[in-house]
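Exercise: predict the structure of this protein bound to uracil.
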Amino acid sequence: MALHLIDHPLVAHYLTRLRDRDTTPDEFREASDKIITLLLYEATRTLRTRTFEIATPIESTAGTAIADRVVAVPILRAGLGLMGPVLDLLPQVTVGYIGLERDERTAVASRYYVKLPPDIQGKTVLLLDPMLATGGSATKAVEILKEHSPASVRLICVVAAPEGIMALQQAHPDVEIFAAARDRQLNAQKYIMPGLGDYGDRLFGT
Ligand code: PRP
Ligand code: URA
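Solution:
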């Protein structure tokens, strides 16, 4: 499995806005949209394209279009907050949803909702979940996706813990991870340190 840590001054800037406990939900959502746009830029770098002839107002030239069909799958609830930039940027994207919730005591993720487009087979799936902590949620989500035979799965997350990276790597070595940061470790409550707290709560003001 490849881990892509996106080393870029703008990513570092918006990650700091997300980490700061004084960032308000409005500011958090704005920084989240911006950092996800930057991560998407990297996560879509290897999508295949096709070329075709177009006419500019001046003359004919070769044009480019995205040839791969992409399915975006946010893990509810926090992953939903990453959808704005995905819908803005990706042509002809279809969307599925996987609802998982971590038990606050055990941190074990259980599914409460799954709704996927019928045409995942052979497509590129962008799995969206901002926090890779124990890796339980991402591992379960990939398991669910693989029942539908996608061509590949790429996980876009903001912060990844070493524990989660290792767990996902062991369970699904073929999944590529695109993250803004690999943090130090999990605390006793399975929150990422230094992390940014509960992404869903901060995004939605709960
Ligand atoms: C958070 C986060 C991830 C999960 C990561 O979700 O959005 O889905 O924890 O943790 P893991 O790697 O240990 O599984 P949470 O269960 O808090 O639900 P929410 O998105 O509804 O807040
Ligand atoms: N989920 C979050 O939102 N934050 C963490 O630190 C761990 C899991």
